[in-house]
């Protein structure tokens, strides 16, 4: 079969473009929150697995935190357990928590482990309960009354927030050949189990590990301006301005606040990227243009490193 010189040159260009990024981030920890379409589409699932394995093979230390909301909802429906949501969060009673733990800590976690292993990696699945990795506390939320005179405390059941991350287990894995795949389940000092938002867990882990990057996969192209164009590079000050003028609002705010918190606590950059794109993680980390929005305290607008 004759050599396709154009295709070969394109491959060479891609590899040479990636080289300085590989050199820059060798030995660095990169925390990736895996969720959305990338977890449900077979092509995207396999491309994600190859991305993470590739990162490990070239000397980076990827840490994966995964969600699983749709999978939890599907199993609850099959078991005829009614789902209740308050302000977009699933109310988690003891029966629902059993399903959450079964799905996140078992089915989803082990599927991701198997995918990475099939693609040449050495993945190991853990939950926040293993080695007391995630110490949780009950999430307390308030909702203002209609007339604004008083705030009502919401009871979301076994929905938690992160009280503390125990880095001992992660440090042990980080400097090995293994890739940790983390289910966002935590436990409090009394042994009670809590379901925790995966973005929040990823952000907290990135902070305590002093990660180079926090990468959040989403089902959108990134942070957009009012004209609908993706903003590829933003400083934290610019993000604050976009929130203040209403450009960033609604469902994007929790991810933005997670990214801001990580960057304001030592993570070099946070990336909100389009997980609907094949090999989105590699494209964001190893190319000049990327596939989403970078938020940084130190780099100027438009920088995609």
Write the layout of secondary structure elements.
Layout: H1 5-25, E1 29-34, H2 42-57, E2 61-66, H3 69-78, E3 85-86, E4 89-90, H4 94-118, E5 123-127, E6 134-138, E7 141-144, E8 151-154, E9 159-165, H5 167-174, E10 179-183, E11 185-187, E12 193-196, H6 198-209, E13 213-218, E14 233-235, H7 236-244, H8 252-264, E15 269-274, H9 280-286, E16 292-296
Q: Give the helix level as a range of percent.
A: 25-40%
Low-confidence stretches: 299-305
Strand order of the largest sheet: 5-10-2-1-13-15-16-14
* Strand percentage: 15-25%
Q: Please, what is the oligomeric state?
A: single chain
Order of helical and strand elements: HEHEHEEHEEEEEHEEEHEEHHEHE
């Amino acid at each position: 079969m004759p050599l396709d010189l154009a295709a070969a040159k394109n491959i060479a260009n891609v590899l040479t473009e990636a080289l300085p990024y590989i050199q820059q981030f060798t030995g660095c920890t990169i925390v990736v929150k895996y969720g959305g379409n990338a977890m449900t589409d077979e092509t995207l699932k396999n491309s994600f697995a190859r991305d993470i394995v590739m990162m490990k093979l070239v000397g980076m230390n990827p840490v994966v935190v995964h969600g699983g909301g749709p999978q939890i909802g599907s199993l609850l429906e099959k078991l005829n357990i009614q789902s209740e949501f308050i302000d977009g969060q699933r109310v988690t009673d003891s029966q629902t928590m059993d399903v959450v733990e079964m799905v996140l800590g078992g089915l989803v976690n082990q599927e991701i482990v198997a995918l990475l292993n099939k693609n040449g990696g050495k993945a190991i699945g853990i939950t926040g309960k293993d080695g007391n990795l995630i110490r949780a506390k009950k999430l307390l939320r308030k909702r203002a009354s209609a007339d604004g005179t008083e705030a009502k405390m919401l009871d979301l059941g076994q929905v938690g927030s992160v009280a503390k991350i125990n880095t001992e287990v992660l440090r042990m894995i980080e400097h090995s050949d293994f890739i940790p795949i983390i289910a966002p389940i935590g436990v409090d000092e009394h042994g009670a189990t809590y379901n925790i938002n995966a973005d929040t867990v990823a952000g907290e882990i990135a902070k305590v590990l002093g990660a180079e990057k926090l990468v959040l996969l989403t089902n959108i192209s990134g942070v957009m301006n009012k004209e609908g164009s993706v903003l590829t590079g933003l400083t934290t000050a610019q993000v604050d301005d976009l929130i203040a003028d209403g450009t960033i609002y609604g469902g994007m705010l929790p991810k933005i606040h997670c990214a801001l918190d990580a960057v304001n606590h030592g993570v070099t950059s946070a990336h909100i990227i389009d997980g609907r794109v094949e090999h989105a993680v590699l494209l964001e980390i190893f190319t000049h243009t990327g596939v989403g929005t970078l938020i940084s305290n130190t780099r100027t607008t438009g920088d995609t490193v």
